[in-house]
Amino acid sequence: MSEAPGAYYPIFLNIAGKRCLVIGGGQVAERKAASLLDCGGRVTVISPRLCPELEAKRAQGAIEAQVRDFRPGDLEGVFLAIAATDDPGVNDSAVKEAHIRGTMINVVDQPGECDFIVPSVVRRGELLIAISTGGRSPALARKVREEMEGHFGPEYGALLDLVSQVRLELSNRGCHPSPQAWQDHLDSELIEMVRQGKAGVARKRLTAALEARP
User: Fold this and answer.
1) Integer CA distances (angstroms), 93 to 5, 113, 154, in order
2) Which whole-number Å values give the CA distances from 79 to 30, 94, 137, 171, in the listed order?
3) End-to-end alpha-carbon separation of the chain, Å?
4) At a CB cut-off of 8 Å and minimum separation 6, what does 118 contact?
5) What does the DSSP 8-state code read for residue 118?
6) DSSP of 90-105
7) Is 29 helix (H, G, I), strand (E, B) or coil?
8) DSSP letter at 177?
9) Across the 214 residues of the chain, what is the mean pLDDT of every consecutive 10-residue run?
10) DSSP state of 131
11) How far is CA 158 from the centre of its chain?
């Protein structure tokens, strides 16, 4: 058993193009593989059996799969690993090798064995809101996520795109509004415009307001 974790350091990892290994072939492993693929990871799955969804991903070429037991050496060159099996012996072997190789590893539902835990997330385009209870209550993390999903609708993804465009446009003109100016003008009226599909009007409004502010 690893040392009990203290407070977690929040971090967002860039895994695009990096080798990621999922150990396990069931539904949980499939969800983990899917989330890694969504973030651009190069995913390999190792398991004696693959669920139909993982078989489909292999057939599509989305993942590599080795239909066999996990064995020493499988973590060579791996950036990040997730052990999603119901076999404590396999999970323990994966953790030991990960620590030797310096590979970050997560063991599903075993926070004490993990280098990192996976938060519950709300994703709206490139806007990502992560919720964690430090592994103490997945149910509470889910409840908070569901509440936040109701508050942050799809318009927030569009709003982020708009704000990014305005920021770049103003920067190219040598205009750099203060953080407070941004906060003042990212208001409920602007969000409502985006929600109603009036992104062009919202962009002009925001640009004009920020140009008039130091």
Assistant:
1) 20, 11, 42
2) 19, 13, 27, 36
3) 55
4) 32, 35, 106
5) P
6) HHHHHHHHHHHHT-EE
7) helix
8) -
9) 69 96 97 96 98 97 97 97 96 96 94 91 95 91 96 96 96 94 95 96 96 77
10) E
11) 19
